[in-house]
């Protein structure tokens, strides 16, 4: 399978709430995908009074509007104040219908696999699905930094790892693992 490019970008939504976007894309398409995310996601309006279900639904709907042919995997993490539960993170293919996190391994195409559990983190990685499943079984509840290191050690590259950005104790973030580097962006911690 040929290589992949990747990007991370922080965006202020129209309502002033911080949002992170990260993606895995065709090599050389990073700037186009980054700008498309800024354009589409920068117009999102949030009241700060959305339910936890509505927050994720709005993020998933926005993700589907980002389905450029060269964008293969997309992750979003949003910080909204006052949420009663953990929310504000989505991960998957913008070309596929959104699904709730169920802890099952799902194919995303182009040899990418998704493993998303309620409460996260969600992981999308290229490579052997059995290796990803085995890593996940040994890492239940682990910290995102540890997940990122283990994904790299297992050769599951490239990868995106997303944590929820809203709700009690949430620390939204996106980790992007490419062949030579791992980069991360985080949101302010929620009270």
What's the rounded overall pLDDT mean?
A: 91
| Strand count | 10
Class inferred from helices and paired strands? alpha+beta
Distance between the termini: 43 Å
How many helices? The count is: 4
Instruction: Trace the largest sheet across and list its strands.
Output: 5-6-7-8-9-10
In terms of DSSP E residues, the strand content is 25-35%
Q: Uncertain segments of ≥5 residues (pLDDT<50)? A: none
Order of helices and strands: EEHHEEEEEHHEEE
Secondary structure: helix percent: 10-25%
For the largest beta-sheet, the strand count, sense and barrel status come to: 6 strands, antiparallel
Principal-axes shape call? globular
Roughly how many Å is the radius of gyration? Answer: 15 Å
Quick synopsis:
The chain has 191 residues and is α+β, with helices and mostly antiparallel strands. It contains four helices and ten strands.
Give me the secondary-structure topology:
Blueprint: E1 5-12, E2 18-25, H1 30-41, H2 52-64, E3 71-78, E4 89-92, E5 105-109, E6 112-115, E7 122-126, H3 129-138, H4 144-153, E8 159-163, E9 173-177, E10 182-186
Antiparallel strand pairs: 1-2, 2-3, 3-4, 5-6, 6-7, 7-8, 8-9, 9-10
Give a written overview of the molecule.
With 191 residues, this protein is of the alpha+beta class. The protein is built from four helices and ten strands. The chain has a six-stranded antiparallel β-sheet. It has a four-stranded antiparallel β-sheet with strand order 1-2-3-4, with helices on one face. 43% of the residues are buried.
